Amino acid sequence: MAKVTGIGGVFLRARNPTRLAEWYRRHLGVPMSDGAAVTFHWTSDETTTFALFAQDTDYFGEPGQHAMLNLRVDDLVALLDQLRASGVEVLPDAEESEFGLFGWCVDPEGNRIELWQPAPGM
Questions:
Q1: Which candidate, 117, 23, 22, places its Cα nearest to that of 76?
Q2: pLDDT of 13-46, one tens digit each?
Q3: Residue 28 bridge partners (DSSP)
Q4: CA 71, 72, 74 angle in degrees (round to 5)?
Q5: CA atoms of 109 and 119, how far apart (whole Å)
Q6: Which residues of 59-72 are buried (b: 16+ CB within 10 A; e: fewer)?
Q7: Cβ distance 36 to 4 under 8 Å?
């Protein structure tokens, strides 16, 4: 059975990502980049990214969704098939990039969840 293996990222909408990134740097010591993101390296093959997105991004889906989880998975294709077979809403567009495979599903409360199978060596 394909499954989630960790949290790949936490993404927040922000009215002003640059200003909010500065707040996280100054008050919490989070080493946010100028692009309003940071990747924490827990082990050589496990990372978690915290990133701020513009308020008007459509990447999260519905405008009312203020945060999106990125969950690391061991077999994206199999997991998406399992979710579809269980009646879970799976979005039709999966993507492949140098970072790996990405797919999305929607939880029962309408929150878009990003599922990520890292590329080998990530």
A1: 117
A2: 999 999 999 999 999 999 999 999 999 999 888 8
A3: none
A4: 135
A5: 30
A6: ebbeeebeebbbbb
A7: no
For the chain, the helix, strand and coil percentages under 3-state DSSP, each to the nearest 5: 20, 45, 40
Query: Strand pairing partners for 50?
Result: 10, 38
Q: What are phi and psi of 79, to 5 degrees?
A: -65, -45
Under DSSP, is residue 7 helix (H, G, I), strand (E, B) or coil? strand
Predicted structure pTM score = 0.90
3-state secondary structure of 57: coil
- For residue 22 the two structure tokens come to 């500065």
Q: Is 94 helix (H, G, I), strand (E, B) or coil?
A: coil
Nearest Cα to Cα of residue 94 among 110, 78, 111: 78
Alpha-carbon separation of residue 106 from 45, 69, 71, 101, 114 (angstroms): 27, 11, 13, 17, 9
CA 120/CA 56 separation, integer angstroms? 33
CB 114 within 8 A of CB 91: no
